[in-house]
Design goal:
Elements lengths: L3 E2 L26 H9 L6 E15 L20 E16 L3 E13 L26 E13 L6 E8 L21 E9 L4 E11 L7 E2 L3 E10 L5 E12 L18 E12 L7 E14 L11 E15 L8 E9 L9 E2 L24 E13 L2 E12 L34 E15 L2 E12 L1 H6 L10 E11 L1
Parallel strand pairs: 1-10, 14-16
Antiparallel strand pairs: 1-8, 2-3, 2-21, 3-4, 4-5, 5-6, 6-7, 7-8, 8-9, 8-10, 10-11, 11-12, 12-13, 13-14, 14-15, 15-17, 17-18, 18-19, 19-20, 20-21
Length: about 500
């Protein structure tokens, strides 16, 4: 088992207000069902019964639709690139917490209507897998989302253990997150040991990621092993300090572990990620907040792209994030201005024996690199400017803009799932690929998101995004039969907790 340092090792520590635009927190709300039972009888205090229902309607114009022939992100004509659909996610849970042990079971039903995306398009083709249209990649009608047993009392002893199927979230979720925006989310079959003292807390975990497949019981990828050690300390005054070491070890069988996986499965790789994160504690620097994170990655990697070398490559890659903000605490709506730079390295020479593209691991990318979900932290420079407003206690509004550049034009433009668009260097103008002579400027994105808390148990969220295609996209789709266009995204979401 490998080792890493985490914010959650000492519990869920707060983050600077407005640092990331998210719906209003309901963490202090036990739920309608729990409130009812606990008022009736104090014996229900240790029990947790409840759930949530979320519905979201999405309209996407200019998006590639997996499974539809010729459909590419930002393609202007000659193929369908417009898709609108309805997603519903229902979760029901039952849990019990004792001073020395706990248990939780949570089921999930993820439904989709009118989604043109295939559940698994098998494009580019992966040997041993088959395409499946189904109801789309975010449909999984009946799923065991979590089933956890925990043993230990950190108030009495420094060690605690939990095992089972669980979500995992560390830091800001840039490398390990629950992927809550997705209609299915992300879980692992895992064992987690936590050691906590006055100086720091450490999570040591070993896991296998669960593969969603609609219509069958979801099982983990037995050929994809993810382990780590994630530690957090509050001993640097006014700051949260994380240190982590993560390992992802996948064999050649991992890519075809299930016939129609609805999340991308990895090629063979043994990747090791060592990183640091420093983040200001809320309010400790007055109106200012900041966060710094950096990680280096080494090991070996087998590139799955067509035309890439067939032997394992030496991994040498990195990522960095610099983020800061200022909140006008005495001004109406408490505006926060934020500026952020995110960078994931790219491969300067795809034909040598080194692989320099940073692997994004298991992130919640939706929160960071544009709400339109075109970009991951791989071969990218992202400059983000944001304005967050809170006009009333129930309303949050965020406006943000992004500028995207490829870190290296000898490498691909990777989608939000970390999959390269196109193969290795198709004929120029016939779609995405590796084209060193093209501009590195991908484009800009403008997003507006508003969240309103109707009641403790109900939130409404709406959002709009527009992506202005840059020179790289225009050159990639310069074939007269393709052409390029901007893309737009509109959504409306309702979330109920009970």
């Amino acid at each position: 088992m490998t080792c890493a340092l985490s914010v959650t090792a000492l519990g869920q520590l707060p983050v600077p207000a407005g640092a990331v635009a998210t719906p209003v927190s309901t963490s202090s709300f036990a739920g309608l069902v729990n409130d009812h039972f606990r008022q009736q009888n104090s014996a229900f205090t240790n029990w947790d019964f409840g759930g949530s229902v979320r519905g979201r309607f999405e309209v996407k114009d200019g998006y590639g639709i997996p499974g539809v022939p010729g459909s590419l992100d930002f393609r202007d004509h000659g193929a369908d690139v417009d898709n609108d659909y309805l997603l519903e996610k229902i979760r029901l849970r039952a849990g019990y917490t004792d001073p020395w042990w706990s248990a939780l079971v949570e089921g999930e039903s993820s439904l989709a209507q009118s989604d043109q995306r295939w559940a698994y398009a098998n494009n580019p083709p992966v040997a041993g897998t088959v395409g499946k249209k189904g109801d789309g990649p975010e449909a999984d009608s009946i799923e065991l989302h979590q089933a956890i047993v925990g043993v230990g009392n950190l108030k009495e002893l420094p060690l605690a253990l939990k095992v089972g199927r669980m979500e995992m979230s560390y830091g800001d979720e840039r490398l390990i997150g629950a992927f809550g925006w997705n209609n299915i989310g992300r879980t692992f079959d895992a064992a987690n040991v936590r050691w906590q003292n006055d100086w720091f807390g450490v999570d040591l975990f070993a896991s296998r990621p669960v593969i969603p497949q609609n219509g069958v019981f979801d099982v983990p990828n037995h050929y994809d092993f993810f382990s780590g050690c994630y530690a957090t300390s509050l001993k640097i005054p006014k700051n949260i300090f994380d240190v982590y070491f993560l390992a992802r070890n996948a064999s050649a069988q991992a890519a075809a572990a299930m016939p129609s996986p609805q999340f991308p499965q990895p090629s063979a790789r043994d990747l090791y990620t060592a990183g640091l994160r420093l983040k200001s504690q809320p309010g400790e620097f007055g109106p200012w907040d900041y966060a710094l994170e950096g990680a280096y990655q080494f090991g070996s990697f087998l590139d799955p792209r067509a035309g890439a070398p067939t032997q394992r490559l030496d991994q040498s890659s990195y990522m960095m994030v610099i983020q800061g903000g200022y909140t006008f605490t005495e001004t109406w709506a408490r505006p926060r201005l934020g500026l952020e730079y995110s960078h994931g390295s790219g491969d300067s020479n795809p034909q040598d024996n080194r692989h320099e593209t940073f692997e994004n691991l298991f992130p919640t990318n939706h929160k960071f690199y544009g709400y339109m979900d075109f970009v991951s932290l791989e071969n990218i420079h992202d400059i983000r400017a944001s304005l967050s407003l809170k006009p009333t206690s129930k309303l949050n509004v965020t406006i943000e803009g992004h500028g995207f550049w490829l870190a290296d034009t000898h490498d691909s433009f990777y989608n939000v799932a970390g999959v390269a668009r196109g193969g290795a260097g198709p004929t120029p103008g016939t779609g995405y690929g590796v084209n060193p002579g093209y501009s590195s400027f991908v484009g800009t994105e403008l997003d507006v998101v508003a969240t309103y808390t109707v009641a403790r148990f109900a939130q409404v969220e709406v959002g709009f995004g527009h992506f202005f295609a840059g020179d790289y996209i225009q050159q990639s789709l310069s074939n007269p039969n393709f052409g390029s266009q901007d893309a737009s995204f509109v959504y409306a979401q309702v979330n109920l907790n009970f």
